[in-house]
Amino acid sequence: MSVYGRILLAGLGSALMLLGAFGFQYIGEFDPCVMCLWQRWPHAVAIVVSVLAMTALYRWRRPLSVLGMIAVSSGTAIAGWHVGVEQGLWDGPGSCSAAMDPASMTTEDLLASIEAADLVRCDEVVWDLFGISMAGWNALISTGLALLWLFAALPKTTTPFKVPS
Fold it and tell me: If we measure between CA atoms, which residue out of 69, 84, 39 comes closest to residue 152?
């Protein structure tokens, strides 16, 4: 596959990831949590980078491919963090996964924290396929897209020998 093909495939992969996220939100009526929204931004950046890389001068393709790889790799990191929050391995942002201890709070404090909290929690899996949550699938697919960007950024390899014709 050519460099153009890898860049195009990586950009289309990110576009499909965003379309899937919006489909789950608007068609499936799964409201996203804060961390889900954060995971969308790297794919949006990767789409813009792929358009730029496809239309840029050849000498800009490698740096833009590295930028695309960094973008989707950051998406992998955010999605991996989200999976850890879902599995209870570490804490997520206080706005969507903070544990409250109602016994130690006054009634006013409890009501204020309930009113201020997001309705969608980051530490709950609302959908999974084969035991893998949406954040998990995002981490896996983003890793594959990062590899595509990496292969687009690598210099063209040459064969060390000539094939007789």
Answer: 69
Which residue, chain included where needed, has tokens 């064969």?
159
Residue 46 CB neighbours (<10 A)? 33
pLDDT per residue as tens digits for the range 28-60: 988 888 888 999 999 999 999 999 998 877 778
In the chain, where do the E strands start and end?
128-129, 132-133
151 vs 139: CA distance, rounded Å: 19
Tokens of 53: 């890389």
**pLDDT tens per residue across span 97-122:** 555 555 666 777 767 766 665 567 77
Residue 158 pLDDT: 46
Cα–chain-centroid distance for residue 92?
A: 16
**Of all helices (H) and strands (E), which one includes residue 40?**
helix 34-55
- Residues 8/11/16/19 CA torsion (nearest 10 deg): -130
Angle between helices 134-153 and 34-55 (to 10 degrees): 20
